[in-house]
């Protein structure tokens, strides 16, 4: 009976090891996206690289772990693997910024940079964690007759741990701690996990001591930060990583505060000495809505960011009401704290996906808007495809009054290898809007047609009012593209079923 109880205890420990190693893997993956974000963003490209490298590492780890376990099925060896994984993860937390800065300085394109970052930072730890599952299965195996049940049970527990790690990391830990601190806590937990498989008392003592040292390191990181932390305030939200920093505008010497969710570009900027003044040139083109429809009173803004455009409208046009749809409540809180966003009777904020909002508003027959502004792209590598389609254009048309104006910010070029996204959106939106006007925000000269820039697409369901040219808008109107424009036949009109934005952004890197 005593022998049977010992076997039960060993099996229970091995099952717990399988469960928690699965949780650790998913927490590592979720934290990975946040650690890479300040340097390479959180686009689909970055996520694909992270998932691909981690899955490859787990695959190699499974193979190696099974081979080693057959040759040396020893609990102490599994304990060493866990200890080594804990040390690697702890070092990753402290050295990741240096590694990422080094990769960034190589000047590789986003695809190669993302793969290199994932491989350098997460491949070693993922490989070691991948070795755990087959090793545990080998140690838990008592006889061939029950091997299927043992492997199935351990696989289920590993998957259950992965589920726990996904929800614990995504819903709880990331909202409480910086990513580096989470990795330190994770490393401490993995060191403690090795106690379950070690048999010798002195090995268990060493494992507990190491867990305590790493845990102390996480406490230090909470209070003092990690080495080479990126400049500015670093904020993790449920959806993204935000950097808030300040710099000097070289055009006028004024101090500018910047909100960054993608390192390739700034998403929002304000002048510290006058927050309601617009800084980014492209944001000034939204004012064209009042040129084409001077009596505009209701505005819908898709994409809040630093709320620069809504604040500017509310400050200068108190008779106008603005509804803002912003997916991430963390973005709004950042705008309140760092970008002087305040409550206003004429401002309503909806925290939901822009396409979900459009679907619901049309379905419920919401009151129509005089103007709709769309600014939902973080960068040319972070495009929500569902906002580029024929179906989206139909919804936008439904929500506009007959003579209303839609203005869309698109990051692309008018012609050339970087123009595919623009041509696909142009075709999609022209299916619902009679008038389509192009305003290159930075360089309207035809010789810059292949330059990557902000292109403002101004759309209307009618043609009559689109000839308006009020004097105060002369500078903006001078940017209109007056050359003939014919969308390329090779690019399809984007639809919900087929919007290959990634294919065309691939050509931009």
Jot down its keywords.
509 residues; alpha/beta; Growth Hormone, Chain: A; Rossmann fold; 2 domains; seven-stranded mixed β-sheet; five-stranded antiparallel β-sheet; 15 helices; 12 strands; 51% helix
Task: Note down, in words, how this protein is organized.
With 509 residues, the protein is α/β, with parallel strands linked by helices. The chain folds into two domains: 2-224, Growth Hormone, Chain: A (Up-down Bundle), CATH 1.20.1250; 273-506, Vaccinia Virus protein VP39 (Rossmann fold). The protein has 15 helices and twelve strands. The strands form two sheets. A seven-stranded mixed β-sheet has the order 8-7-6-9-10-12-11, sandwiched between helices. Strands 1-2-3-4-5 form a five-stranded antiparallel β-sheet, with helices on both faces. α3 packs parallel to α7 (201-224). The longest helix has 39 residues, at 2-40. 48% of the residues are buried.
The CATH architecture classification of the largest domain is: 3-Layer(aba) Sandwich
Low-confidence stretches: none
Strand order of the biggest β-sheet: 8-7-6-9-10-12-11
Q: Tell me the number of structural domains.
A: 2
The CATH topology of the largest domain is given as Rossmann fold
Helix share bin: 40-55%
Mean pLDDT score: 90
Number of strands: 12
Query: Could you tell me how far the N terminus lies from the C terminus, measured between alpha carbons in angstroms?
Result: 66 Å
């Amino acid at each position: 009976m005593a022998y049977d109880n010992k076997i039960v205890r060993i099996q229970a420990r091995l099952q717990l090891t399988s469960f928690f190693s699965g949780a650790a893997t998913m927490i590592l993956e979720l934290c990975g996206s946040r650690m890479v974000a300040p340097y390479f963003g959180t686009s689909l490209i970055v996520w694909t690289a992270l998932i691909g490298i981690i899955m490859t590492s787990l695959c190699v780890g499974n193979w190696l772990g099974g081979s080693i376990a057959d040759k040396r099925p020893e609990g102490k060896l599994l304990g060493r693997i866990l200890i080594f994984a804990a040390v690697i993860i702890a070092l990753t937390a402290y050295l990741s910024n240096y590694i990422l800065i080094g990769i960034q300085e190589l000047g590789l394109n986003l695809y190669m940079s993302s793969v290199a970052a994932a491989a350098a930072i997460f491949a070693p730890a993922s490989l070691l964690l991948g070795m755990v599952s087959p090793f545990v299965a080998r140690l838990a195996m008592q006889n061939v007759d029950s091997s299927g049940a043992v492997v199935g049970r351990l696989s289920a527990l590993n998957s259950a741990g992965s589920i726990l790690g996904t929800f614990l990391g995504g819903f709880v830990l990331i909202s409480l701690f910086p990513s580096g601190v989470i990795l330190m806590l994770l490393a401490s937990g993995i060191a403690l996990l090795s106690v379950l498989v070690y048999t010798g008392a002195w090995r268990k003592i060493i494992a507990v001591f190491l867990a305590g040292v790493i845990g102390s390191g996480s406490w230090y990181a909470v209070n003092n930060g990690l080495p080479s932390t990126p400049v500015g305030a670093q904020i993790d939200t449920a959806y993204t990583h935000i950097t808030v920093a300040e710099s000097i505008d070289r055009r006028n010497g004024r101090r500018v505060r910047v909100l960054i969710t993608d390192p390739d570009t700034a998403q929002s900027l304000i002048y510290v000495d006058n927050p309601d003044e617009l800084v980014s040139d492209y944001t000034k083109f939204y004012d064209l809505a009042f040129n084409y429809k001077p009596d505009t009173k209701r505005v819908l803004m898709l994409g809040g960011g630093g709320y620069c455009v809504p604040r500017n409208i509310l400050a200068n046009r108190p008779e106008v009401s603005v509804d803002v749809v912003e997916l991430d409540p963390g973005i709004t809180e950042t705008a309140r704290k760092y970008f002087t966003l305040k409550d206003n009777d004429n401002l309503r904020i909806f925290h939901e996906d822009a396409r979900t909002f459009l679907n619901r508003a049309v379905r419920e027959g919401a009151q129509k808007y005089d103007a709709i502004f769309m600014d939902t792209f973080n960068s040319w590598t972070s495009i929500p495809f569902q906002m580029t389609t024929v179906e989206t254009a139909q919804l936008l048309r439904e929500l506009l009054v007959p003579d209303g104006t839609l203005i869309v910010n698109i990051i692309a070029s008018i012609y050339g290898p970087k123009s595919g996204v623009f041509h696909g959106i142009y075709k999609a939106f022209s299916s619902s809007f009679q008038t389509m006007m192009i305003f290159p925000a930075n360089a309207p000269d035809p010789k810059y047609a292949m330059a990557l820039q902000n292109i403002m697409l101004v759309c209307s369901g009618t043609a009559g009012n689109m000839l308006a040219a009020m004097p105060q808008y002369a500078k903006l109107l001078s940017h209109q593209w007056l050359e003939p424009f014919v969308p390329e036949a090779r690019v399809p009109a984007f639809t919900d079923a087929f919007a290959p934005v990634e294919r065309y952004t691939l050509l931009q890197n």
